[in-house]
Design a protein that fits this description.
By secondary structure, the protein is α/β, with parallel strands linked by helices. The protein has helices at 11-23, 48-54, 108-121, 145-158, 172-176, 192-199, 215-227, 255-262, 271-275, 281-291, 317-335; strands spanning 2-5, 27-32, 37-42, 60-64, 84-86, 89-91, 97-101, 125-127, 162-165, 181-184, 205-208, 233-237, 267-269, 295-299. Helix 3 runs parallel beside helix 11. 43% of the residues are buried. Bound molecules: phosphoenolpyruvate and manganese (II) ion.
Length: 342
C-alpha cells in the first residue's frame, strides 16, 4: 500500500510511520518528494485491524492500496517514468537509446572494431556477451573474464558504457566490476537466486523477457530486483515463442504499450533475437520507435558471416548505419507537427 503523508508532515511523523509499518511485518520504502512524502509499504499484506489505525497516525493524509502483485514496479506505486542513468546516457523518460554490438565478445580486434562502429553510428551503449547461455554445451560459451576485460578496454577507448550478461549469481562481483549494465537473459528471467543477488547490486539491470514469460511474470521478476533494493531496471521485449516458425521468435510489439501502462520502468526492444534474421531488424527497429519504446538493443558484427554466434541476425556495419539514419529521420518526422490526413 502507499501511505501518502500530509504536505506539512514532519520527519518525526514520517519516521514513526516507517517504524509502524515495519513493526507489523511490511518493508517500508519512503520517498521524499519536494512537496509530499509517500511511504510504500510492501510485503506484509496482513491487512486486517492494524491497517485501520494507519490512516489515523499523525501526519498521514491517506492510505492507497496497490492492487497489482508487482508492487514496486507498478504505475500505481510510482506514476512518473523511471529514468535509468548510465554515465551520461539516460534510458527512459522520453529518449530513445540504442545499444548495439556483437552477440559475443570474440577477440580484441572484433570488439574494438564493433565499438568504433557503434560510436560512429551515434548509438550510446556497447553490448557484448562474455558469459553466453547456449542451448548446446558444445557451442561457444564466451571468453568469460577475458571478454569482460575487452569490454572494459572498449569502453576506455570509446567512452561507451557497456552491457553484458550475467548467468551465474556467483559471478556478480566479477561482472559488476567491469560492466555498466548487468543483462539478465531470457533463459534466466525466472532464476530467482540470480534476481535476488543482482537486486542487492547498485549496477543497473537489463531484464529480458523469457520466451515463455507473460507480461505479469516479467514484472514479477522485475519485482524481485526492485524489492531487494535495486530500482534501476530496464525491461526488454525480445520475442516470445508462438506457433510461428518463419521467425526465430515472435516480437510481441503490443507488450510495449501494455508495459508502459502497467509499469514506470523503461522498456526497450531487441529485434535481433525476436526475429533471428538481420533483414527484419530495420523494420522492427522503426516499429520500436513508433510504438513508444525507450530504445533498442541490436546485434551488429563487423563480419557477421564469421560470428561465433547469432551471425544470421547480426547487422553488418553498413546496415547498422542505415538503421541509425532511419531512426533519426523517424524521430524528426514524429516530432514535426506533420499533417498526416489532409
Ligand atoms: C543475447 O542478448 O545475446 C541473448 C542471449 O539474448 P536472449 O537472452 O534474449 O536470448
Ligand atoms: Mn545473441
Amino acid at each position: 500500500m502507499i501511505i501518502v503523508m500530509k504536505r506539512n508532515a514532519t520527519e518525526r511523523q514520517i519516521d514513526h510511520v516507517v517504524d509502524w509499518v515495519e513493526s507489523i511485518g511490511y518493508r517500508a520504502y519512503p520517498s521524499r518528494g519536494t512537496e509530499q512524502t509517500v511511504v510504500k509499504a510492501i510485503g506484509g499484506e496482513r491487512g486486517g485491524e492494524e491497517l485501520k489505525y494507519l490512516a489515523a497516525l499523525s501526519g498521514v493524509d491517506k492510505v492507497v492500496p496497490i492492487r497489482k502483485p508487482y508492487k514496486l514496479s507498478s504505475r500505481e506505486a510510482k506514476e512518473e517514468d523511471t529514468v535509468v542513468q548510465v554515465g551520461n546516457v539516460s534510458i527512459g523518460g522520453g529518449s530513445f537509446t540504442v545499444m548495439a554490438g556483437p552477440c559475443s565478445v570474440e577477440s580484441e580486434q572484433q570488439l574494438l572494431e564493433s565499438a568504433y562502429i557503434v560510436k560512429k553510428a551515434g548509438a550510446s551503449i556497447l553490448r557484448g556477451g562474455a558469459f553466453k547461455p547456449r542451448t548446446s554445451p558444445y557451442s561457444f560459451q564466451g571468453l568469460e573474464e577475458d571478454g569482460l576485460k575487452l569490454l572494459a578496454k572498449a569502453r576506455e577507448k570509446t567512452g561507451l558504457p557497456v552491457v553484458t550478461e550475467i548467468v551465474n549469481p556467483e559471478d556478480l562481483d566479477l561482472v559488476e566490476s567491469y560492466t555498466d549494465i548487468l543483462q539478465v537473459g531470457a533463459r534466466n528471467v525466472q532464476n530467482f537466486a540470480l534476481l535476488k543477488k543482482i537486486g542487492r547490486s547498485r549496477v543497473p539491470v537489463l531484464l529480458k523477457r523469457g520466451m515463455m514469460t507473460t507480461i505479469e511474470e516479467l514484472l514479477m521478476s522485475a519485482e524481485y530486483i526492485l524489492s531487494a533494493g535495486n530500482d534501476q531496471v530496464i525491461l526488454c521485449e525480445r520475442g516470445i515463442r508462438t506457433f510461428e516458425t518463419a521467425t526465430r521468435n515472435t516480437l510481441d510489439i503490443s507488450a510495449v504499450p501494455v508495459l508502459k501502462e502497467l509499469t514506470h520502468l523503461p522498456v526497450i526492444i531487441d529485434p535481433s533475437h525476436a526475429t533471428g534474421h538481420w533483414k527484419y531488424v530495420l523494420p522492427l527497429g522503426r516499429a520500436a520507435l513508433a510504438v513508444g519504446a525507450d530504445g533498442l538493443i541490436v546485434e551488429m558484427h563487423p563480419q557477421p558471416e564469421k560470428a561465433f554466434c547469432d551471425g544470421a541476425q547480426s547487422l553488418k556495419p553498413e546496415t547498422f548505419y542505415e538503421l541509425m539514419d532511419e531512426l533519426r529521420r523517424m524521430e524528426y518526422v514524429m516530432s514535426a507537427t506533420a499533417k498526416v490526413l489532409v
